[in-house]
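Tutorial handout. Part one gives the primary structure; part two gives the three-dimensional structure as tokens.
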Amino acid sequence: MNNAFEKLDPKIREAVWELGWDSLRQLQVDSIEAVLQSRDHVILSAATASGKTEAAFLPILSLMVAERRSSVQALYISPLVALINDQFGRLESLCEKADIAVHRRHGGVNESERQRMMKNPSGVLLITPESLEALFIRRGRELSRLFCGLQFVVIDELHSFLDNVRGTHLFSLLKRLEVASGTSPRYFGLSATLGDFTQAKAFLSRENPSLVRVIEDSSHTKNVRVSLKPYIRRKPPRGKPHNPEALPDPTATIADIATSEDAAPHLTARNRKSGC
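Part two.
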């Protein structure tokens, strides 16, 4: 491990060791340094399965252990229920050693699980925008109690909320939540597909986008090879039926095809042979 790992709370370090990690990814190192040494909002931009969730939550959980509050401290928002269910298990593994509760709230969560969070709000809450709206409608008077200690808001798949109605709805919910809870949380945006960060920064901090730090992962770059293959479409000889399996040699310079559909298996054979 490295210096960034040593900056994490001992209980979070213990959880990482028990998960069998022998090192942190560069994105996680950069995030730990940025989150623990500043009050900036953060965008984590990296490929799928690059450890973005852990990059956000390793430092967040360390700060939560150091300053426990009697309400939900971290809110994780996802556009997809399936993603919430997946992240729920991953976060439980990190939070168990630190005795941090992990809750989830969406249409598929049973009533007993919902009530546990309502009776003892704490730790991390994973939720969809629609379920957050439902809290406003059904539990509006309890929002202050539930979120009075809110410190962090993590928005997964941030790109899916930009420049659309669902994003406008979420932005409104978050601003209303700040007012209802009397808090000013730090915002984190996770995405694998952001190109221009201008709009994403404004979503996290409309008043001052310069306070949003962008951390990109440069360790997962890939080379893309492009090839061009010419085809000549020719009709089969008169009286001879078309045989889609009778493809020409994939190494030929120019291939004859009878229909455009023939090009797909031909390209597959050629690229498999060339290792593309």
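Part three, for discussion. The beta strands are 41-45, 74-77, 102-105, 124-127, 152-155, 186-191, 212-216, 231-233, 255-257. The chain has a mean pLDDT of 87.
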